[in-house]
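Record type: monomer structure entry
Structure origin: computed from sequence
Chain ID: A
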Amino acid sequence: MRTGNPTLNERTFQNQSGAAADGAMTIQGAVNKTLLLLGMSIATASYTWTQFIQGNQSFAMMLGFGGAAAGLVFGLICSFKPTTAKITAPLYAAAEGLFLGGISALMEAKFEGIVIQAVALTFGVMLALLFVYKTGLIKVTENFRLGVAAATGAIALFYLVTFALRAFNIFEMPYIHESGLIGIGFSVFVVVLASLNLVLDFDFIESGAAQGAPKFMEWYAAFGLMVTLVWLYIEILRLLAKLRSR
Protein backbone atom coordinates (compact mmCIF):
# COMPACT_ATOMS: atom_id res chain seq x y z
CA MET A 1 0.00 0.00 0.00
CA ARG A 2 1.22 3.49 -0.83
CA THR A 3 -0.81 5.02 1.98
CA GLY A 4 -2.39 4.12 5.28
CA ASN A 5 -5.60 5.75 4.12
CA PRO A 6 -7.93 2.81 3.31
CA THR A 7 -9.47 4.76 0.43
CA LEU A 8 -6.12 5.39 -1.28
CA ASN A 9 -3.77 2.55 -2.09
CA GLU A 10 -1.51 1.59 -4.96
CA ARG A 11 -3.96 -0.89 -6.45
CA THR A 12 -6.49 1.88 -6.95
CA PHE A 13 -4.55 3.53 -9.75
CA GLN A 14 -3.42 0.19 -11.15
CA ASN A 15 -7.02 -0.97 -11.45
CA GLN A 16 -8.08 2.30 -13.07
CA SER A 17 -5.06 2.76 -15.32
CA GLY A 18 -5.36 3.46 -19.00
CA ALA A 19 -6.41 6.33 -21.20
CA ALA A 20 -9.70 8.04 -20.46
CA ALA A 21 -11.93 9.85 -22.89
CA ASP A 22 -11.79 13.09 -20.92
CA GLY A 23 -8.03 13.08 -20.38
CA ALA A 24 -5.63 12.09 -17.62
CA MET A 25 -5.47 12.99 -13.97
CA THR A 26 -3.37 15.99 -12.93
CA ILE A 27 -2.16 17.22 -9.56
CA GLN A 28 -3.80 20.61 -10.13
CA GLY A 29 -7.08 18.91 -10.93
CA ALA A 30 -6.95 16.92 -7.70
CA VAL A 31 -6.13 20.10 -5.75
CA ASN A 32 -9.02 21.99 -7.32
CA LYS A 33 -11.48 19.23 -6.50
CA THR A 34 -10.15 18.97 -2.94
CA LEU A 35 -10.79 22.69 -2.47
CA LEU A 36 -14.30 22.24 -3.85
CA LEU A 37 -15.02 19.40 -1.42
CA LEU A 38 -13.64 21.48 1.45
CA GLY A 39 -15.92 24.35 0.47
CA MET A 40 -18.95 22.07 0.45
CA SER A 41 -18.08 20.69 3.88
CA ILE A 42 -17.65 24.18 5.30
CA ALA A 43 -21.01 25.27 3.85
CA THR A 44 -22.99 22.38 5.34
CA ALA A 45 -21.06 22.59 8.61
CA SER A 46 -21.98 26.26 8.87
CA TYR A 47 -25.66 25.37 8.53
CA THR A 48 -25.57 22.83 11.36
CA TRP A 49 -23.50 25.23 13.46
CA THR A 50 -26.05 28.03 12.91
CA GLN A 51 -28.95 25.80 13.89
CA PHE A 52 -27.18 24.89 17.13
CA ILE A 53 -26.38 28.50 18.01
CA GLN A 54 -29.94 29.59 17.29
CA GLY A 55 -31.19 27.18 19.93
CA ASN A 56 -32.17 24.25 17.71
CA GLN A 57 -29.76 21.88 19.42
CA SER A 58 -31.87 18.77 18.89
CA PHE A 59 -32.26 19.48 15.18
CA ALA A 60 -28.54 20.23 14.87
CA MET A 61 -27.61 16.96 16.56
CA MET A 62 -30.06 15.10 14.33
CA LEU A 63 -28.36 16.64 11.30
CA GLY A 64 -24.98 15.71 12.73
CA PHE A 65 -25.83 12.05 13.33
CA GLY A 66 -27.60 11.85 9.98
CA GLY A 67 -24.59 13.36 8.27
CA ALA A 68 -22.26 10.86 9.93
CA ALA A 69 -24.41 7.92 8.77
CA ALA A 70 -24.79 9.30 5.24
CA GLY A 71 -21.08 10.09 5.05
CA LEU A 72 -20.25 6.50 5.95
CA VAL A 73 -22.56 5.15 3.23
CA PHE A 74 -21.28 7.51 0.53
CA GLY A 75 -17.70 6.89 1.62
CA LEU A 76 -18.08 3.12 1.32
CA ILE A 77 -19.69 3.42 -2.11
CA CYS A 78 -16.92 5.70 -3.31
CA SER A 79 -14.23 3.43 -1.87
CA PHE A 80 -15.52 0.28 -3.57
CA LYS A 81 -16.52 1.97 -6.84
CA PRO A 82 -14.14 4.86 -7.65
CA THR A 83 -15.93 5.56 -10.93
CA THR A 84 -18.78 7.05 -8.87
CA ALA A 85 -16.46 9.54 -7.14
CA LYS A 86 -17.70 12.49 -9.19
CA ILE A 87 -21.07 12.04 -7.45
CA THR A 88 -20.29 10.28 -4.19
CA ALA A 89 -17.29 12.44 -3.21
CA PRO A 90 -19.33 15.69 -3.09
CA LEU A 91 -22.15 13.87 -1.29
CA TYR A 92 -19.63 12.55 1.23
CA ALA A 93 -18.18 16.03 1.76
CA ALA A 94 -21.62 17.58 2.28
CA ALA A 95 -22.68 14.86 4.71
CA GLU A 96 -19.45 15.04 6.70
CA GLY A 97 -19.89 18.81 6.90
CA LEU A 98 -23.23 18.31 8.67
CA PHE A 99 -21.54 15.98 11.13
CA LEU A 100 -18.54 18.23 11.72
CA GLY A 101 -20.78 21.26 12.21
CA GLY A 102 -22.75 19.48 14.89
CA ILE A 103 -19.81 18.10 16.83
CA SER A 104 -17.93 21.40 16.50
CA ALA A 105 -20.86 23.40 17.85
CA LEU A 106 -21.19 20.98 20.74
CA MET A 107 -17.50 21.26 21.62
CA GLU A 108 -17.54 25.05 21.23
CA ALA A 109 -20.40 25.29 23.72
CA LYS A 110 -18.27 23.43 26.23
CA PHE A 111 -14.87 24.94 25.43
CA GLU A 112 -15.08 28.42 23.95
CA GLY A 113 -12.63 29.06 21.14
CA ILE A 114 -11.69 25.42 20.66
CA VAL A 115 -13.05 25.13 17.12
CA ILE A 116 -11.01 27.96 15.60
CA GLN A 117 -7.93 26.45 17.25
CA ALA A 118 -8.69 23.01 15.81
CA VAL A 119 -9.36 24.40 12.33
CA ALA A 120 -6.16 26.47 12.38
CA LEU A 121 -4.08 23.52 13.55
CA THR A 122 -5.59 21.17 10.95
CA PHE A 123 -4.80 23.43 8.02
CA GLY A 124 -1.48 24.42 9.57
CA VAL A 125 -0.44 20.78 9.81
CA MET A 126 -1.56 20.13 6.24
CA LEU A 127 0.39 23.06 4.81
CA ALA A 128 3.47 22.26 6.91
CA LEU A 129 3.51 18.63 5.80
CA LEU A 130 2.93 19.62 2.19
CA PHE A 131 6.00 21.87 2.48
CA VAL A 132 8.23 19.21 4.01
CA TYR A 133 7.03 16.68 1.44
CA LYS A 134 7.69 18.93 -1.56
CA THR A 135 11.11 19.94 -0.21
CA GLY A 136 12.08 16.32 0.36
CA LEU A 137 12.57 16.66 4.12
CA ILE A 138 10.40 13.58 4.55
CA LYS A 139 11.33 10.62 2.36
CA VAL A 140 8.40 8.35 1.53
CA THR A 141 10.11 4.97 1.57
CA GLU A 142 8.42 1.59 1.36
CA ASN A 143 9.09 0.91 5.05
CA PHE A 144 7.60 4.30 5.91
CA ARG A 145 4.45 3.46 3.94
CA LEU A 146 4.10 0.02 5.49
CA GLY A 147 4.67 1.35 9.01
CA VAL A 148 2.05 4.07 8.72
CA ALA A 149 -0.41 1.71 7.02
CA ALA A 150 0.00 -0.91 9.77
CA ALA A 151 -0.39 1.66 12.56
CA THR A 152 -3.45 3.17 10.88
CA GLY A 153 -5.07 -0.23 10.54
CA ALA A 154 -4.37 -1.00 14.19
CA ILE A 155 -5.95 2.28 15.32
CA ALA A 156 -9.00 1.71 13.11
CA LEU A 157 -9.45 -1.77 14.58
CA PHE A 158 -8.98 -0.43 18.12
CA TYR A 159 -11.63 2.26 17.58
CA LEU A 160 -14.03 -0.29 16.10
CA VAL A 161 -13.63 -2.68 19.04
CA THR A 162 -13.91 0.02 21.71
CA PHE A 163 -16.99 1.50 19.99
CA ALA A 164 -18.68 -1.92 19.94
CA LEU A 165 -17.83 -2.55 23.60
CA ARG A 166 -19.18 0.84 24.65
CA ALA A 167 -22.31 0.53 22.50
CA PHE A 168 -23.30 -2.73 24.18
CA ASN A 169 -22.14 -1.48 27.61
CA ILE A 170 -19.72 -4.39 27.94
CA PHE A 171 -16.49 -2.63 28.80
CA GLU A 172 -15.22 0.94 29.01
CA MET A 173 -11.59 1.38 27.98
CA PRO A 174 -9.92 3.20 30.89
CA TYR A 175 -7.61 6.22 30.56
CA ILE A 176 -7.60 6.37 26.74
CA HIS A 177 -10.65 8.62 26.46
CA GLU A 178 -9.91 10.60 29.60
CA SER A 179 -7.93 13.82 30.08
CA GLY A 180 -5.08 12.18 32.00
CA LEU A 181 -1.55 11.86 30.69
CA ILE A 182 -2.27 8.49 29.08
CA GLY A 183 -5.33 9.83 27.29
CA ILE A 184 -3.48 12.92 26.08
CA GLY A 185 -0.50 10.85 24.99
CA PHE A 186 -2.79 8.54 23.02
CA SER A 187 -4.43 11.50 21.27
CA VAL A 188 -1.03 12.98 20.40
CA PHE A 189 0.00 9.67 18.86
CA VAL A 190 -3.18 9.47 16.76
CA VAL A 191 -2.80 13.10 15.60
CA VAL A 192 0.77 12.37 14.49
CA LEU A 193 -0.39 9.22 12.71
CA ALA A 194 -3.17 11.07 10.88
CA SER A 195 -0.66 13.75 9.90
CA LEU A 196 1.72 11.17 8.44
CA ASN A 197 -1.16 9.83 6.36
CA LEU A 198 -1.34 13.25 4.72
CA VAL A 199 2.24 12.82 3.54
CA LEU A 200 1.40 9.47 2.02
CA ASP A 201 -1.73 10.91 0.41
CA PHE A 202 0.35 13.65 -1.25
CA ASP A 203 2.75 11.02 -2.57
CA PHE A 204 -0.12 8.86 -3.78
CA ILE A 205 -1.76 11.72 -5.71
CA GLU A 206 1.55 12.70 -7.27
CA SER A 207 2.18 9.10 -8.33
CA GLY A 208 -1.30 8.79 -9.80
CA ALA A 209 -0.77 11.89 -11.93
CA ALA A 210 2.61 10.55 -13.07
CA GLN A 211 1.01 7.23 -14.08
CA GLY A 212 -1.62 9.01 -16.17
CA ALA A 213 -4.65 7.79 -14.23
CA PRO A 214 -8.08 8.60 -15.70
CA LYS A 215 -9.51 12.05 -15.11
CA PHE A 216 -12.26 10.88 -12.76
CA MET A 217 -9.57 9.72 -10.33
CA GLU A 218 -9.04 13.37 -9.42
CA TRP A 219 -12.37 13.19 -7.62
CA TYR A 220 -11.41 9.94 -5.96
CA ALA A 221 -8.03 11.30 -4.85
CA ALA A 222 -9.72 14.43 -3.46
CA PHE A 223 -12.16 12.20 -1.59
CA GLY A 224 -9.31 10.20 -0.05
CA LEU A 225 -7.56 13.37 1.07
CA MET A 226 -10.82 14.61 2.60
CA VAL A 227 -11.10 11.40 4.61
CA THR A 228 -7.70 12.07 6.17
CA LEU A 229 -8.45 15.75 6.82
CA VAL A 230 -11.74 14.93 8.55
CA TRP A 231 -9.98 12.35 10.71
CA LEU A 232 -7.17 14.78 11.55
CA TYR A 233 -9.59 17.57 12.50
CA ILE A 234 -11.62 15.30 14.79
CA GLU A 235 -8.49 13.99 16.53
CA ILE A 236 -7.10 17.50 17.02
CA LEU A 237 -10.47 18.58 18.42
CA ARG A 238 -10.41 15.65 20.85
CA LEU A 239 -6.84 16.43 21.90
CA LEU A 240 -7.64 20.08 22.55
CA ALA A 241 -10.74 19.06 24.55
CA LYS A 242 -8.63 16.82 26.76
CA LEU A 243 -6.10 19.59 27.32
CA ARG A 244 -8.83 22.12 28.12
CA SER A 245 -10.46 19.66 30.53
CA ARG A 246 -7.33 19.74 32.66
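Annotation 1: The first helix runs from residue 10 to 15.
Annotation 2: The chain has eight helices and no strands.
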